[in-house]
Design goal:
Largest sheet: 5 strands, mixed
Number of strands: 5
Number of helices: 7
Structural class: alpha/beta
CATH architecture of the largest domain: 3-Layer(aba) Sandwich
Low-confidence stretches: 153-166
CATH topology of the largest domain: Rossmann fold
Mean pLDDT: 83
CATH superfamily of the largest domain: Resolvase, N-terminal catalytic domain
Distance between the termini: 41 Å
Strand order of the largest sheet: 2-1-3-4-5
């Protein structure tokens, strides 16, 4: 499995350099112990209370890639402090990424208080998704009422159950991504409408679409 190593110290003082080096060495050993392939090593010198950090933003981008399975840290405070820590833990865990720490010599064990807060946040997000899906279904009903024929987007006509939609709706993927949904959440939403797609497929189609747009803009300029 592939893992990302994330190292952070709180200031940019030269004396902190040795701490970064030590973290990287210890986390590399932890990766070897758990038979991880190191895909990326991110080093950062910034306050844990600050969310606007280049390294942590890079980490959040990397964990959305389907080939990434784990993040290795010294302990949870390396991700952040206070509310920033909770927000980042939630972003990482909801992507299905495993967290491993030196402090636990293996998979990170959340404290009871952190675990409770994350459960509450997860419940709120779940109801937000349900409301979002209700709105989509209402829109679909209106579209059908106004003449939209969803069966035209289905293959295997007349073969009963298991029919799949031919194309992944890239416009809907882009819209949901702009609304802050993860690729896993987008895939789950689309499956609810009969599109048999995985997180990896959604990610691949989105990346291809963005590359096509960039190429088109380059050609026009």
């Amino acid at each position: 499995m592939n893992a990302i190593i994330y190292c952070r110290v709180s200031t940019d003082k030269d004396t902190q350099e040795t701490s970064l080096i030590r973290q990287e060495e210890e986390l590399t050993q932890l990766a070897n112990q758990n038979q991880f392939q190191i895909a990326e090593i991110i080093r950062e010198q910034a306050s844990g209370y600050d969310l606007e950090r280049e390294g942590i933003l890079q980490l959040l981008d990397e964990i959305r890639k389907p080939e990434i399975h784990a993040v290795l840290i010294q302990d949870e405070t390396r991700l952040g402090r206070g509310n920033a820590k909770i927000a980042l833990l939630h972003c990482i865990l909801k992507e299905g990424i495993k967290l491993y720490s030196i402090s636990h010599n293996g998979e990170l064990q959340l404290s009871e208080s952190d675990s409770m807060v994350l459960k509450i946040v997860g419940m709120v997000e779940e109801y937000q998704r349900k409301l979002h899906n209700i709105k989509i279904k209402r829109g679909m009903k209106r579209a059908v009422k106004n003449g939209f024929k969803p069966e035209r987007n289905l293959k295997n006509q007349g073969e009963g159950a298991g029919r799949e939609k031919i194309e992944v709706p890239i416009d809907e993927i882009v819209r949901l991504k702009r609304n802050g949904l993860t690729f896993a959440e987008i895939a789950a939403t689309l499956r609810g409408f009969g599109y048999q797609v995985s997180k990896a497929t959604v990610h691949r189609r989105y990346q291809q679409h963005m590359e096509d747009l960039a190429a088109e803009d380059s050609y026009k300029s």
